[in-house]
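LOG
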Amino acid sequence: MARNEIVERENDLGNSIPGIDAELMSSMKEEVLRARKENIPMIQAFEAVARKSGLKVNTIRNYYYRYLHAHLSKNIGSRGVKRSNWAYKGVAGKSFTEEEVRNLLITILTAQAKGESVRSCANRLADGDPKKMLRFQNKYRNVIAGQPEYVKNLMDEMTQRGVRYFNPYTRMIVDGTEGTSAKPAAAGSDYKNDTAGRLSENNDAMPKDDTGSLIETLGKIITGLEDFDNIYISAFFNGLQELIDMARTGKNNTMEQVTRLEKTCKDFQNKLSRMESYLHRLVEINQRFLALPDADKISSLTDYMNDLEICIKKYANL
């Protein structure tokens, strides 16, 4: 989502968030907007509000996440989508608290950076309980797909704290130190390095404005593929690459075939033109002989036969 769209969304949201003082919320919005405009880490905005209010940074951070949740709820309501469709409740009907969501995401993102899959981590957190495992897994995936801004803010905070985590949108491991480059996930995670390399090469050739949205879309596709136990993401993208290669090869073969057909057609047209010229010559010889008086035909028969012979030899060389 573009930065100016985010700013507009936050400006449109009213100050009536239950449990948050209006003056504190106004200060929080001001600092957050300033951080976004100046492209500085979000944690600095939280620290600035904390200094002004005398509250702890963690408290300000939690208020901000409540703010995002309230904004998301407003958007969902305006589209006529029920809250339950966004999996705010688990299979047992118990809602996740904001702190539980935050801890769940941090745990799974850091576990993926160590090569553990989402399903394996969720199963570990659930102590082997299949219902709890499914609840954790679905909640994680719904937040990743439905609240990318919330997740990105959380990843910014993890970066500032030096936590090594997995970015589900770029499918890269981030070392957690600001300024360091991200690395492809390890071979033991949900996809292979060669697949990441191919995606990276393709992204380099794309317009910069499209690359971010493409990476985010691919992240959502890969997250959805994890729902199927018998599908390996690396195999999926390898198969997709093979289809692209086959299409490219087929296109090249088609172009070669078109070139050959064009040459054959041109040769045929040239031959047809020569045959047309031969036919006209043959008609001309016969018309001239037939136009002679009967008395002259016998004396001109030798010339007529010679002309026919010459014409036939030219035809044989066509």
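LOG (cont.) second protein
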Amino acid sequence: MPRAGTPTIEDPMSDFLTEKRDEIQARLDELAPLIAEHDRLQRALDALDGVDSSSGSSSRGSEKSSGSRSAGRPRGSGERSRQALALLRQEPGLGAAEVARRIGVHPNYAYRILPGLEEQGLIEKKERLWYPKDAA
């Protein structure tokens, strides 16, 4: 233990690690808004998948309206779902995280779309891996 008044020698490795840790945290803080924007844009794009752009104006207010609205397009009917299904048909037995990586989405999005494909009877889950129904 150093005596009072005696200068201490700092551990250069500890300083280096602290500096790098601070740099990484600062960069993560910078990137957080961009990641949030990416996620918002991805959700918007996914919501637009399956929307027929040639349908013209909205049917809201027409005399055929029953007052109830559907919940939107069926689960598993968007472009990302089609990509996931095509990938699993090409390479059966992938995990959700690998499917997500290959189609360019966050893993939690894959965890949302794969059960929809399973409900439609297009894929099935065995253990933690997904298989197309025709190859399982």
